[in-house]
Design a protein that fits this description.
Layout: E1 3-5, E2 19-25, E3 29-31, E4 39-50, E5 53-62, E6 67-73, E7 78-79, H1 80-96, E8 101-103, H2 111-120, H3 143-162
Antiparallel strand pairs: 1-6, 2-4, 2-8, 3-4, 4-5, 5-6, 5-7
C-alpha cells in the first residue's frame, strides 16, 4: 500500500483518547518536500482508532518552518483488524526516508498524562505563521514613503535629463 500526502491536513485536532499507537523519530533527518526548502524534520507514526475503524498517519514535522506534512494510506481508514499491517507499512515508509522510529509508550500513560503528552506534540499544533522578511537590509517603508521617494526620483531624473 502506498502513502500519499494529504495537503488539507495541517495539524491533528483528534483527542488523545483516539490514539492507539504512537512512534516518533529519535533524531531529525534533512528532507525536502514540494513547496518547502530542504530542512530537518522529525517523523511521527500513529494510529487513530474509533468505531471499529483505524487511520494510520505518517507525519513529518518541519523544524524550521514549524509546519507538518501528513501522509495517509491510499485507502484512508481501514478496519481495526487491518490496521497492524498498514501500521507496519507506515513504519517502513518512514524508515525508507532515513528515520529511526521508537515506541513512545503512549499507551502506558495515564489518561491525564496522555492528554498532556499529546497536547505538547508539534503535530497537534496549528502551523506557525512565518512572516516575510524584507529582501534587503533596508527598513520597511510605508506606501506614502515609497510614493514620496518615487516623486523625488522622477523630479531628479527630470532635472538631469534637462541639463543634457
Amino acid at each position: 500500500m502506498f502513502f500519499t500526502q494529504y495537503k488539507k491536513l495541517t495539524f491533528l485536532s483528534a483527542p488523545a483518547t483516539k490514539v492507539a499507537k504512537l512512534h516518533s523519530s529519535s533524531a531529525a533527518v534533512q528532507l525536502s518536500f514540494s513547496g518547502y526548502s530542504p530542512q530537518p524534520c522529525r517523523a511521527y507514526l500513529l494510529q487513530l482508532s474509533g468505531g471499529g475503524k483505524a487511520l494510520v498517519l505518517v507525519a513529518f514535522y518541519l523544524l524550521e518552518t514549524g509546519c507538518t506534512i501528513f501522509f495517509v494510506p491510499e485507502k484512508g481508514e481501514v478496519s481495526v483488524d487491518q490496521a497492524d499491517r498498514i501500521y507496519e507499512q507506515g513504519f517502513q515508509f518512514a524508515e525508507s526516508m532515513g528515520f529511526i522510529l521508537t515506541e513512545t509508550d503512549f499507551h502506558l500513560l495515564s489518561a491525564p498524562d496522555k492528554q498532556k503528552y499529546w497536547g505538547n506534540l508539534p503535530i497537534t499544533q496549528p502551523p506557525q505563521v512565518v512572516t516575510a522578511q524584507p529582501q534587503s537590509g533596508r527598513p520597511h517603508k510605508s506606501d506614502e514613503e515609497y510614493e514620496s521617494l518615487r516623486e523625488k526620483s522622477l523630479s531628479s531624473l527630470g532635472r538631469y535629463l534637462a541639463s543634457m
